[in-house]
Amino acid sequence: MIAIYPGSFDPITLGHIDVIERGAKLFDKVIVAILSNSSKSPLFTVDKRTEQITECTKHIANVEVGSFTGLTVEYAKLHNAGVLLRGLRVLSDFEKELQMAHTNKTLNYEIETVFLATTTEYSFLSSSIVKEIAQFGGSIDHLVSENVAQDMYHKYQNK
Ligand code: PNS
What we know:
The structure is a single chain. The chain contains six helices and five strands. A five-stranded parallel beta sheet has the order 3-2-1-4-5, with helices on both faces. It has helices at 14-26, 46-56, 72-78, 91-107, 127-135, 146-156; strands at residues 2-7, 29-35, 63-68, 83-88, 112-117. Helix content is 43%, strand content 19%. The protein is an alpha/beta fold. The site of 4'-phosphopantetheine (PNS) has 9 residues, from β1 and α4. 4'-phosphopantetheine (PNS) binds next to β1 and α4.
C-alpha cells in the first residue's frame, strides 16, 4: 500500500518527520507531496522544500518526495496510492482535517485518509510557529532538522 503525505511543508518540522517515520512503518511507500499551488506565499520554493525534505528523510528507505498542483486525490491516483496520510495534533486540527477527509472521499471513494496522532512532544509544533520564532531571532534547533534550521537562519540572517 502506497501512502501520500500531502502538505505545504514550509518548512518541514520534526513533527512532520515523526509522522513520516511512523507512516513508513505502516505502508510500503510514503510519498511526501508538496503542494505547489498554495495561495499562501511560501518562504521556500518547491525546489528548496524538495531538497530539504529529501535530506531530512534520507534515513528512511521507503520515502519519496514529490510535488503537485491541483487535487491531492488526483496526485494519489497517478501514483497508485490508496491512502492519504495526515497528522492530527490538537482538537482544533480536527474540524479542518475531517472536512478535507470527507471532501476527498467525495472526489475519490477508493482513497482512504489515515490520521496519525502526533507525538505529544510535537503537539504544539507548526511551520508557522517555526517561521515566527526564526523571524524574531529565536532558536529553532529543537523544532526542525539541522539542514532546515541552517536554511531558516540564512533566510533571516540572524545566526
Ligand atoms: O500542510 P497543509 O497546508 O495543512 O496541507 C494542506 C493540503 C495540502 C493537504 C490541502 O490544502 C490539499 O490537499 N490541497 C490540495 C487541493 C485539494 O485537493 N483540495 C481538496 C481537498 S480539501
